[in-house]
């Protein structure tokens, strides 16, 4: 491990942008009043309304803010088209169930996403969905969606990312054994994910890959991992321990349609280190080729990365 | 393990009150503009202002709400007197450092606490401090403090709590080995703590005690654990793995002043099960005697519990 950074470096890194950073100055937001899952009205448009994002919108009693108590999704939008909407709303529902939140009404969320998308700028944008347990002592969850321009990720898709591996503390079975650890839920409690990204930057890398205590690779703080070994594409099995990546699912569609073998597996750190190519996949940054693992250069496949990103940038 | 609960039970438990629940209807709040730690003005009163808690006060861009990215403290207030202020602000600073947040200006926080305390109702109240990384892309953290009446904990101090032990997934050294897990920081990412409390209630208990993968007891989701064995008081060593409890510190002052031996130790689950008394200690509920561990009744010491709570209810 390298020596620690100076306090100046640490201070600056506290405000590092994540690929999911929302630029509030160019943000549009909808405040959503969640309705019950069994509410079957034909039109949900009166359950959400545009809000002024430069003005306060949330109570200090919000449990999202007091305890990171809620779930979220980030959806990539290309020229006004939100991608993988179904995978995202299904995962939102899955996360909500794991957190004992009332089941989201998916038609309502789909309609809110469509409404938000009409406010997306041309090019790449991001829609963020947040479902919070609501205000303390309140009877109902609160929810909102934001849409804002995405950061320019074209360079990182081409040049790739240097990653460090970071101990996640858990063993591979922790998630299934202890569901209260919420490892399969995309919760708002992301402080550890953000701390891992800061640690990666302190070590001179761009991103991190979490490794279990027993030496298995899991995922990045905000992305899925896919490796290629002997022509086979592999990603860690989505279990109680990691999220099922929506972009990884799309990439697997692309790969299998082209005749590649693409599977789920239990992957050891050595499998990543010896892969003949590896990527981090996420909804906004899309496919970022991994160029180094713990400061050791690893092979990449520029042609395939380009084709994969072209696919991921197309409407789905 | 018991069979799972019905979905009705699960739904209701989603809104269970925690001992730290804030009743917004009777809440007073100060919005704080954090100043640099080396700002040495003599009066910070113009850096915070009362806000209407029934009105929105926070941006949807708040990183506290988007990622549980910030730190907090809950301070017990008795008849307008905030207890253990110094221990709380010091822990706030410690948590901020672990999270690479700018160091809080402690004179500013002490002054804000004093100002909030003047709005505390008679009897027991709670001041909650929140320091968030701020609005996305913003240059500065945001902060606020709330004060509200505490729930009536007199019964639980007398009757005690039934606890279940829950696997925390980590081993005892995870916190020191992997500081990015933020195990020693009181972050806003409390979804797992809340999920553990819901799991405890599903199992018919009142609270939970986290146990490491390798069988050591740690702490409760919102409280410290103290046991008595052969007349000696013991609490798990505050390391990278757990928070150092402010109320536990006060309890140790009380105990040592009365000639008791009170130490830090590495405690196995068996030590809890065979203790001759055990308590959960926290700032608002104070000393709650443990009456059962995983459905096995354990001995209590009603006289000592009463004296300890009388001390903890006195101004400190």
Automatic annotation (TrEMBL), chains A, B:
<dbReference type="Pfam" id="PF01063">
    <property type="entry name" value="Aminotran_4"/>
</dbReference>
<dbReference type="GO" id="GO:0046394">
    <property type="term" value="P:carboxylic acid biosynthetic process"/>
</dbReference>
<comment type="similarity">
    <text>Belongs to the class-IV pyridoxal-phosphate-dependent aminotransferase family.</text>
</comment>
<dbReference type="InterPro" id="IPR050571">
    <property type="entry name" value="Class-IV_PLP-Dep_Aminotrnsfr"/>
</dbReference>
<dbReference type="InterPro" id="IPR036038">
    <property type="entry name" value="Aminotransferase-like"/>
</dbReference>
<protein>
    <submittedName>
        <fullName>4-amino-4-deoxychorismate lyase</fullName>
    </submittedName>
</protein>
<dbReference type="InterPro" id="IPR043131">
    <property type="entry name" value="BCAT-like_N"/>
</dbReference>
<dbReference type="InterPro" id="IPR043132">
    <property type="entry name" value="BCAT-like_C"/>
</dbReference>
<dbReference type="GO" id="GO:0016829">
    <property type="term" value="F:lyase activity"/>
</dbReference>
<dbReference type="GO" id="GO:0005829">
    <property type="term" value="C:cytosol"/>
</dbReference>
<keyword id="KW-0456">Lyase</keyword>
<dbReference type="InterPro" id="IPR001544">
    <property type="entry name" value="Aminotrans_IV"/>
</dbReference>
């Amino acid at each position: 491990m390298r020596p620690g950074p100076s306090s100046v470096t640490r201070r600056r890194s506290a405000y590092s942008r994540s690929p999911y950073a929302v630029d509030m100055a160019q943000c549009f937001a909808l405040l959503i009043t969640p309705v019950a899952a069994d509410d079957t009205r034909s039109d949900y448009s009166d359950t959400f309304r545009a809000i002024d994002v430069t003005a306060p919108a949330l109570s200090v009693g919000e449990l999202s803010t007091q305890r990171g108590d809620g779930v979220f999704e980030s959806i990539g939008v290309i020229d006004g088209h939100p991608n993988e909407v179904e995978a995202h709303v299904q995962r939102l529902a899955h996360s909500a169930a794991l957190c004992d939140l009332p089941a989201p009404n998916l038609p309502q969320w789909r309609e809110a996403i469509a409404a938000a998308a009409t406010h997306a700028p041309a090019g790449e944008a991001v829609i963020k969905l947040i479902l919070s347990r609501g205000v303390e002592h309140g009877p109902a969850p609160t929810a909102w969606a934001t849409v804002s321009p995405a950061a320019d990720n074209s360079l990182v898709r081409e040049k790739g990312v240097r990653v460090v591996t970071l101990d996640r503390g858990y063993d591979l079975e922790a998630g299934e054994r202890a569901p209260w650890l919420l490892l399969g839920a995309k919760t708002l409690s992301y402080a550890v994910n953000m701390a891992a990204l800061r640690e990666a930057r302190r070590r001179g890398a761009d991103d991190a890959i979490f490794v279990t205590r027993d030496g298995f690779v899991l995922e990045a703080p905000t992305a899925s991992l896919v490796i290629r070994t002997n022509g086979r594409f592999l990603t860690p099995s989505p279990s109680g321990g990691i999220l099922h990546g929506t972009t990884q699912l799309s990439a697997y569609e692309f790969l299998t349609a082209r005749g590649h073998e693409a599977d789920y597996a239990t992957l050891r750190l050595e499998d990543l280190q010896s892969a003949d190519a590896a990527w981090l996949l996420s909804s906004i940054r899309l496919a970022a080729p991994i160029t180094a693992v713990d400061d050791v250069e690893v092979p990449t496949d520029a042609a395939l990365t380009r084709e994969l990103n072209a696919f991921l940038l197309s409407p789905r």
